[in-house]
From TrEMBL, chain A:
This is Branched-chain amino acid transport system permease protein. The lineage of its organism: Bacteria, Pseudomonadati, Pseudomonadota, Alphaproteobacteria, Hyphomicrobiales. It is found in: Cell membrane. Belongs to the binding-protein-dependent transport system permease family. LivHM subfamily. The keyword Signal does not apply. One of its GO terms (biological process) is amino acid transport. Pfam families: BPD_transp_2. The chain crosses the membrane at residues 6-27, 34-53, 59-79, 99-119, 139-160, 192-214, 226-251, 258-278.
From TrEMBL, chain B:
PANTHER family: LEUCINE-SPECIFIC-BINDING PROTEIN, PERIPLASMIC BINDING PROTEIN OF ABC TRANSPORTER FOR NATURAL AMINO ACIDS. It comes from Devosia subaequoris. It comes from the Bacteria. Belongs to the leucine-binding protein family. This is Branched-chain amino acid transport system substrate-binding protein. Residues 1-26 form the signal peptide. SUPFAM superfamilies: Periplasmic binding protein-like I. InterPro entries: BCAA_transport, Leu-bd, Peripla_BP_I, TAT_signal. Pfam families: Peripla_BP_6 (PF13458). Residues 420-441 are annotated as: Disordered. Residues 35-383 form the Leucine-binding protein domain. CDD domains: PBP1_ABC_ligand_binding-like (cd06338). The keyword Hydrolase does not apply.
Amino acid sequence: MITTLITGLVLGGTYALVAMGLTLQYGISRIMNLAYGEILIFAAFAAFLLFSTLGINPILGLAIVLPVAFFFGYVIYGVMMQPLVTRSSKSGTLEVDSILATFGLLFVIQGAMLVVFGSNYTSYNFLNTGINVLGANVAANRLLAFALAVIIGATLFFVLTRTRWGTTIRAIAVNPNAAPLVGIDVTRTARFAFALGTTLAASGGVMISMYQTFNASMGVVFTMKALVIVIMGGLGNLMGALVAGLLLGVVETLVATYVDPGLTLAATYLIFLGVLLWKPAGLFGKAAGR
Amino acid sequence: MTLFSRRSALRAIGLAATLLASVGVAAVSAQDRTSVKIGYAISKTGANAGGAGITTLPNYQLWVHEVNEAGGLEMPDGTRLPIEVIEYDDRSASEEVVRAVERLATQDQVDFILPPWGTGFNLAVAPLFDRFGYPQLAVSSVTDKAPEFVERWNKSFWMLGGGHDYTEALAEILTAQKEAGTINNDVAVISVADGFGIDLITAARQSFADAGINIAYDVTYPVGTTDFTPMLNEAAASGADTFVAFSYPPDTFALTQQAQVAAYNPKVLYLGVGVGFPVYAANNGDKIEGIMSLGGIDVNNQAVMDYRARHTDFIGQAPDWWGSVVTYNSLQMLEEAIKRRGLDREAVSEELSTGTFETVLGEVKLEDNQLRTLWFGGQWQDGNFVAVAPLTAKAQLRPSCPRPPGPRSKAATHPLNLMFSVSSPRRGGGRGGALDYSMQY
């Protein structure tokens, strides 16, 4: 039973890590980024390239990939999202517009990856050794992803709720129209949150590349999973994403062990449905100030 | 009555169109043509791109390149015509592949159409190939229903066997190992809940039952599962010496890694699609020693090894160890049939069906439009994924079990000489004696 729980928590760590960037982008910048999974996969390819050609290990690779991802997110927001945000201040259609725009972006990034990396399955082995945690054998790379998820989730949650800067970010999430009245630069803050989300996506991609097979067409799988977790956890709430991710991981593992591996997806969506019926704003919906 | 007359009018128009089209084709082939148009629709993007990009597309590219290097396809009169390729991306959507094939036949009016990747896609386009009179050399499709399909579509050719072929070959190996006292009678099986997994597990349940092998653990998992730890733990707890997974490539890769992490070392480890991919060996090094899967290559066949080298040179990556060489073989058959009979599709189909061909696999002759002289099981031995099944074939290499308990053990290659005779009844024609090709080196 303990083995199962630990396996589930570690799996959930991956889910949480993948979801946290999206919750920032959707919850705070209000950009429903459908190209989220593609950015993640792109980072995975980058980590693979650094590892296989330059011999840079993926953890050091984070130091290269993450700043690039931040810059990329910053530019994308400025070039693609800014005009939409400006336009939608009158029409209020930012969600729909951003969905359409990022849907296009999805294909651009995917196409670029297909050209550069081809369509093959890619994977490499790094830190694929068993570590004994309370009697359960857990892969070191997954454990690392779990730790990273918990650290990022806890740190950002603390920053968002306890610091002045975090309050600023939450302010634009709650009421982007009123935020300028108290001297908040909405554009700059939203842009920063979006870039931060991209960075988190990239960190998820790098971690996942260590233990999961990926190819250029796989991004949408991650976007879907992340979306489920983000909505379950409550938009823009990092702690929510963390808890929801871990919960999904544990439930999937429990179902796979004690019921039937074929029902893991059904269990995922059953919980999703349950949460939506019981708390439509997500598990931690209120905590984000909505 | 109106309906009737309208229908007959439509029929007349259809007939007229068909006749005109055939006249058109005849007219084209009679005139001086400068090239042979060959078209195909393939998954360059989407979920199937990973498989198509390894087994199918590189071989199409390699073959076209080699033919054109040699001056083109040879015609019966000795002249050569270069191949002109028309390629569509079906984006891994079955509607798209159907539309693209229809377009190739009606608008582009290509001379031959190469089949798409995947069992489902080949079935989706089979009626079209049949309706427009194109031979369909379906390679990347594993189906037990091939004899029925051949009856329904007489220009369809099925080159990779059916699920039962593979599971019977596996049951054969397991029975032999069991009799040798290497493994117990229990097997743990997991399978992906999708086309390939469903076909194979259905066949395996029957093959194992026929062979008296007990399935101790039998579950299916959904496509996209990434964490197999619970299943591996349960399989280990079941006490089975054999672990079998009818898995897709990402699952196969994950299973390999996670079995290492969980220190799970079944005596026989048999995994699904992906074991034969070049990346598999590259990533896992010598930890893959002894792992079995579908397919396999006769490493003593120089022609096959030459082909592998040319493929690696031109494409920049090695071919897989299962379907690639069969795909290439099918193209060589087409090339030879065109050389013998010209561009008349009817005649080429007949030639493919009845002729004997010298290809990379040796001397090949189809039985009831199916390639039956295939390798149904392989095993990683010393860096090569060698063919070890069917045992009845006179392959020189034998499955070696149990697989080494840990990495870097070189003790794996002592062959257990399992000389015993197996007579497994086969549906759909039987294998027709010993394998014709390639094993007598």
